[in-house]
Every structure is written in C-alpha cells, then in structure tokens.
Amino acid sequence: MITEATRARFAAEVAKFPPEQKQSAVMACLSIVQQEQGWVSPGSEKEVADYLGMPVMAVHEVTTFYNMYNQAPVGKFKVNVCTNLPCQLRGGAQTLERLCNTLNVRVGETTADGLFTVQPSECLGACADAPVLLVNDRAMCSFMGAERLDRLIDGLRNSESQA
Amino acid sequence: MNVQSFLNTFQASGLETCFHGRHINPQIYAGLNGENWRLKDYEARGGYQALRRILGRDGGEGMTQDQVIATVKESALRGRGGAGFPTGLKWSFMPRQFPGQKYLVCNSDEGEPGTCKDRDIMEYNPHIVIEGMAIAAYAMGISVGYNYIHGEIFHTYDRFEEALREARSAGYLGDGIMGSAFNFQLHASHGFGAYICGEETALLESLEGKKGQPRFKPPFPASFGLYGKPTTINNTETFAAVPWIIRHGGQAYLECGKPNNGGTKIFSVSGDVEKPGNFEVPMGTPFSTLLELAGGVRTGRKLKAVIPGGSSAPVLPASIMMDCTMDYDSIAKAGSMLGSGAVIVMDDSRCMVKSLQRLSYFYMHESCGQCTPCREGTGWLWRVVDRIENGHGKPSDLALLDNVAENIMGRTICALGDAAAMPVRGMIKHFRHEFEHHIDHKTCVVPAYV
User: Fold this and answer.
1) Residues of A with Cβ-Cβ distance to B212 under 8 angstroms
2) What is the pLDDT of residues B92-111, one digit of tens each?
3) Which of A24, A89, A156 to mutate to test the interface with B (most CBs of B within 10 A)?
4) Are the beta carbons of A127 and B362 separated by less than 8 Å?
5) How many Cβ atoms sit within 10 Å of the Cβ of residue A160?
6) Side-chain half-sphere of B80: how many Cα atoms within 13 Å?
7) Which pLDDT tens digit goes with each residue over B40-73?
8) Could you say which of B1, B10, B270 has the minimum Cβ distance to residue A127?
C-alpha cells in the first residue's frame, strides 16, 4: 500500500517533467517503492502504473529491464559486490567469497535470519576505490578488503540488533 | 547506532579523498579539497563568472549564441564520454530556431568498467556541471535540461540535487537568470542499473520512462531526441570543461592540450597501481607521467598491459603503451582508443584470458537484446573465451572468436556490439600466445592468478 508520504515523494519526481510526460518519473517512483518496501511487488507496479497513468505492463518492462530492481523480496541488507575487471584486479572476487563464507550463503542467497542477501554486480562506477560494494542500492562502500568487509558486516548486524 | 548513521560513518571512513599531487594544471579539479563542493565555495573559485559574462552581467557586452559556440569550437573540446566528437560542432547541429521545446541532457550514466571520473566531478564540484549546462543551454537556445545520473551512485545524485537547489535559490537556474531574459530549468534524474543507458538514445528512452533500448539513427537526437524534440546530449566532463573555456578563451584551452586535442582530461586509473584514482592532466601528457602520478605499477611488479580507454578499448601491451601520450590521436594511432579515459593497468601477474573472460561476461550481461548479432554474439564470445580459460578450448576457437567478432561489428543499432568485439580482437592480437597456451596446455602462462 502506497502511503501519502510516498505519494509526496512521487509528486516531487513527476514535477520534474512536462505534465504530459509523467511516465518519465517511473524509474524514480519504483526506486522509492523499493527503498520503502524492500522490493517491487506486482501490486506496487500496479499502484505506480495507476499513479502515473501508464499500462502496468509498461511499468513491468522497466522493473525487469534494469538490474537494480528487486523482483522478489530480499534480505534486510542487499549487498552487491562488484566483480568486474577493475575490481577483480583488486580482490573483488575474494571479497564476494569472504562475504559468502562469513554469512554461510552462496551467491544470490539470503541468510536464514533474513538479514543479508548477497549478489554479484557489474561495474558500480567507483573503480578507483576497488573493491567496492553497494548496500541496499544507495550506500556505496569503498576499499572493501577483508578487514573493512568484516567491520561492515559486524556493524550492520549490531545496528540491526539495537534497532 | 541506527543503520543509516552506521552506514554514513562507515562510507566516510573509507574515503581518503586526497586531491594533492594528483593533477597537473587542473581545470575541473582545481582548488578542490573533497569538502568544498558548495555554491559559496564554487563562487570563491570564480564559479558562475562565465555564465555572468555571456549574459553581460559582469558589466561587459555579453556574448551571442554564435560567439559561445565559436569559442567552444576554437577550444577543440571533444566529447569526454567516449566518442570524442567535437563539442562545438555538435552544438552547431542544434536547430536553434526550432519553434517548440528543445532539451539539453547531461549523460552521467557512467558505467564503462574502469570509469569513475563523472562521479567525482559531481561529488566534489557539482556546480561546474550546472554552470557548463547553463552556458550550453544559452548557446543553443534551450530552456529545459536533465542530468541523467546512473543509479549506483545515489549519494552523488542526492548531492547534485542539493547543488541544484542552491543554484536555483541563488538565481543561476530558473526564469530570468541574473535578471536577463534567459530561462533554464535543470533537473536530475536517475537510472537503476543498465550499462546500455550510457548510449545516448537508450538514455533518452530511459529518461522517457521506458526500458533503455537504443534507437536507430538517423534521426539523430539533434532533430528527434527527448520526447521527439531537438536534443543535445553531452557527457558530464564535457559540460564541466565549458566554464573554463568561456573564462579563459578557446585558444588558451587548446594550448593547454595539443592540436585537435584541447584542454585537460580526467583519467580514472584503476587496477595494478599503487595509488588508483582520478587524475586530471593536460591532453598529450605522456602515459609514463600519468602512471607515475598513480604511484607506478604495484610494488615488485612490471607493467604488462593497459586498457587505455575503458573496457571497450582494445588492450595495448606495455611496450606500445609506454610510448603513447594520453590524447585521442596518440592512442588511436597505437590501435586503441582514448574512450572515456579509464586506464585499467595490469601487471605481469595477470592472465589476459581471464581478464577477457570477465569483460566478455559483462557485455553478454549488458546487451539489451534488441539486435540479434549482439544478443547472440556476446553470448558466443563469452562462452568461447570461458571454455578457453577453463581448459576446454579447441584449436579452432581463435578463428571462431574472430569470426563472431566480425559478424557483430557494424551490424547493430548501437555501439555495444562493437564494444564487446573490440576487446576480444585486441587481446588476441597482442596476446595470442596466451590464448594458444591455454588451448594447447590447459594451463595459464602466468603463475596463479592473484
């Protein structure tokens, strides 16, 4: 269910575009939904479609085309580790492996407690800070060698247990 | 500590942003310290003076649209996104007298592996992009613009939005800018994970709220762009170069670089160097100087190969690269391309087959699927390189790779197909023996990959 607060965020995105081009805000609206609900459900697609006055299928085309939309629920923390060449040269694969080992999951899986989902990722555009990873689409973490990776996982766990 | 404040602290602790000793005669990164990105800082560095000048708000006569375009032409500024198209010429294609709405778009969909310069520009100097876009909008008679920022850098997107708010409230954007008759509304929009949206027509589709599949050209965006209206699209760094050109003149910009390669360029140096990072140096700077700025090759290792212009650029072996200067013409002459200026450095511990395997996977993953040669061909390229890497290669595989590459290149709507094929050909051209060794011996010529 999309709240009034969410609608206000939608409205700010729609306002950037000509009145007859509301569809241009679909990318932003879907990412807002994902930020608030953790994923983009078929029900949310319908609500976004109604809000923007576009066919549901046109919204679904967007959800399925772009890599970052979650088409199914994920853990509380979705962690995307870049494994592209510049990160590979600086230990990206080892970071992904260590993350999986620490959390006892395979790539693509979610931990049993529902806290972490681990995914590989294509270039995040921060190659000079390699290896990099992204937490919940919005928090880019730089220089993610073993020590910083362990600190990140511990920190996320602790912040969650205190919440 | 709650999650958000933990993440904020954690992210900040990782960034050791140091601009010291990382640039030679910088124009875009000049005077930056990692903190001074706000409007008041930018103004203190002379920001928005170029816009003030062209609008005649500095007590002078102002500049006409033709004068601005002529100055940009004189500067020999070339598109910094990868193609290197002359910016002034592109601006002159815009039908300025077109009676309807026209659009200006900034391409900040930086996704070419190795490239991370636009992120730093928008993070540490966002107003230089805003001023550059406002000048471009003035020159082409455009009143609405969008900056399309890729979805992986939300922090930067939020910062750019904040900079837009500052510029609007100071009267540098909006209606009647600085009391003139010039109106320009600028907004930020974001992607959400699609390399292809860096292709300009795919970006336009995405900006229209659709999946990012490139359009067939012609018609070019200058006649049929965003919402079918005349549109000019430039890269972030291209816009960021414009204020300096207006303030110091086209000739001064050109003289800073070398003929046909004006100005400075930001190179993102990644991979096997001691100090990876973004380095702004004059066009034509020797590669060896850039490598030195980046702290040289990792301690104890020798330079083996360099991908000089982002993952799509053909690799060059150390011997050729060390003789190159960093500009469009020198790198092109050496058989590669300057592209986006992403310099991926590989030392002598690296296997070229494994490197290519990763890049080929990327292009397969990011092909939008619209054109058969790219959709199928990128899969073929990856599968064949993958089996060579994993010891299942056949003697006929190198000819097969060449054949697949040949059948992709020039046969697709956009350049992604070529971008997938070029690194394959480059790797095999310069490091054929490594591929043959993998096929013949099922092992690598270099020791275990680190």
Assistant:
1) 65-66
2) 999 998 999 999 999 999 99
3) A89
4) no
5) 16
6) 31
7) 999 999 999 999 999 999 888 999 999 999 999 9
8) B270
